[in-house]
Amino acid sequence: MPLNARQIDTAKPKEKEYKLTDGGGLYLLVKPNGARYWRLKYRFLGKEKKLSIGVYPDISLVDARLKREEARKIIALGGDPGEEKKAEKLAQKANVENTFRAIALEWHGYKRPNWSKGYAEDLMCVMRY
């Protein structure tokens, strides 16, 4: 039986974590501290896997169902939604690092005329890491 908003809002924490299932592998994990997390259980290449969708109420029931459907489409096309999520995070991290590097190099070029040659070279060595 699919979940509804009232069931989710009235879910009380228990001594141990428990699941409220919605169907299609989607469930809400209720922790003893009262935190609620959306998870999706799916199979890929014969193995059971779990995908973290988000925290309730940041991710609503409707949003969680949409994310479940997106994941099902990825699986139907032969992909692993968990691996795609990891790849997206890595790409975002690379974008942030590239942006920082560009700004740092621009700053270095702007300030360099006021520094000694040795200090400017030392800073460049540090910025490479």
TrEMBL record:
Keywords, alphabetical: DNA integration
GO terms for biological process, alphabetical: DNA integration
Record InterPro entries: Integrase_DNA-bd_sf, Integrase_DNA_bind_dom, Phage_Integrase
Domain of life: Bacteria
Domain Integrase DNA-binding: 3-88
PANTHER family given in the database record: PROPHAGE INTEGRASE, PROPHAGE INTEGRASE INTS-RELATED
Annotated family: Belongs to the 'phage' integrase family.
Name used for this protein in its record: Integrase
Species annotation: Yersinia thracica
